[in-house]
Amino acid sequence: MYIRIPLLNTLRKSPFDGLTKHAKKVKECIKIWEQAMSAYIEKDYDTFDNLSKKVQKLEHEADLIKGNINAHLPKGIKINVYKSDFMFCLKDQDAIVDFAEDIVIWLEFKKVDMNFIKEDLLALIQKVIETVETLEKAVLEIQLFFSSWKRKKREKMKTLLKQVHRHEWESDRLEKKIAKKIFQSDLDAVDIYFTSKLIRLIADIANRAENAGDRIRAMIAE
Amino acid sequence: MEFSAIFIIIAIVLGLYMAWNIGANDIANSMGSAVGANAITLKQAVFIGSILCFIGAVLVGSHVTDTIRKGIINTNYITNVNILIKGLLATLGAAGLWITFATWRAWPVSTTHSIIGALTGFGLFVKGPNIIEWNKIIQVTISWITSPLFAGFLAFILFKIIRKYILMAKDPKKACRRIAPILVGLTFLTVICSILFKTPVGEKIGLCFFKNIILTLALSSLSISIGYFLIARSLKKGKHIESIFRVLQLMTSGYIAFSIGANDVANAIGPVAGIMSIIKNQNISSTVPVPIYLLSLGGIGIMVGIATWGYRVIATIGKKITELTNTRGFVIDFSAATSVLIASKFGMPVSTTHAVIGAVCGMGLARGLDVVDFRIIKPIIISWIITIPAAAITSILFFEILNFIL
Hints:
Radius of gyration of chain B: 22 Å
Helix content of chain A: over 70%
Mean pLDDT of chain A: 93
Number of helices of chain B: 15
Low-confidence stretches of chain B: none
Radius of gyration of chain A: 20 Å
Number of domains of chain A: 1
Largest sheet of chain B: none
Strand content of chain A: under 5%
Shape of chain A: elongated
Order of helices and strands of chain A: HHHEHHHH
Mean pLDDT of chain B: 85
Oligomer: heterodimer
CATH class of chain A: Mainly Alpha
Largest sheet of chain A: none
CATH architecture of chain A: Up-down Bundle
Largest interface: A-B, 32 and 50 residues
Number of domains of chain B: 1
């Protein structure tokens, strides 16, 4: 197709398309991760192995999307927001699935009975999922906001991002509570190390979601 | 002159080829954004674009024709009619070839500037630098900088205003009811101004400058009041703000199609009219009347261009620039159209193509577009600059070939 029209050259595909796509992949991955975690806690290790593979596959797919976005943002391309905000948002969003992958791989190393912290652990996982899901809701709004510039959309995003902060804070509190239980339990040293690192990794997912949220807040700052 | 019939036939074929090029490509400058923003369908765009381009070419075209032909080279220096005829043929051929090459390489160069470059080359070759109106060449050069800059500046400001006072207002609908009529008025102001000041319509009405301004202001104020009424009504019916901008965008898109027909048809049939007049009168007069049938021929050439190739270009552009909303499309179209109007009021032969680039970049800087590729500015500007020498050298070659054969 031979075209001599400036609009064709100057306008490019929005990088927010990629960010949205990545967010959807993260959401998909984190859902499977949740199932994998409950399977492990319920000691259904076959199901866990299956789901763990799925998580790793989705993490890889998310990585490909991230790479594709980065490859299309060379110097000289001007985007709507500070490029650093965009890049770090993407990076932290990608870290969510990276941690999810790290956790399932960590769990493959050793089978530890989690019954003594089961309820708190499930609550922590639930809180982390909520944090991620709230973040992704906000991510999906970014592109819509930048094309409509509706004040309402901006307010909605701000509310969502505040919720992300609150969920993250709650997950931190749960982490502390569980850590206390772990160290007061009569597990052997190896298992204590194993479980305490596990909850650290889980709580980190919420931290990264919060970081990504902070970047979004910077993007829509007035 | 035994060759006169052949000359005329070659000239008409080349002229039609140029007109086809304008229809095939340049029309997408206006209609592509409207299709991309889903303001109209592809079929509607082809229909509206063809009609407006044709009307622009036939009703408004004649005025611009002689300025380009006479503006760049001073024909008083050339006494041999044969040389001038061959020169004009070479000009058309060279400009057509350059446009074809540029289209193949996807360089958004201007048809007007190709013609200017080709004429310069021919003039320099035949009579040396004295024959060239260097002022005009300088104006062309300045327009590479000024028309995109001005369009960009306008797009930047306009988008910021729309965003701050309409889109991000506490009550966007109320704000839209108050401010959108002013935008309607501005759009009308641009369109009416250009019809009155840039085209023979203004001369035909025969009002003086002052009365023209009063007429423009009166019509624009009328459009503001009608606009206020219509906008208030459609907002009350629950229509969205974007749908208001959809109408505004359609108006500016249509206006650009109209002005492409009006301004660019001269690139295709101006030299043809020149050749025909020289052959008929056997002398070189300062101005050449362009018969209406030639303008219609140019208009038909543009329409054929849209129908055979242009619709595909519009479709491709429309698919690739889904980024465009009606608000964004309106800002780009309005800024480009206004900058073209003002620049040509100062006698600069500007190009819509250049203005559109500026407007897109201005929008990008105002955060109006998600992403703008600023890297392509450099190659685009280089392609604008080499248009002049490339077309000039090609036209000299063609002129020599014509001299050799005939």
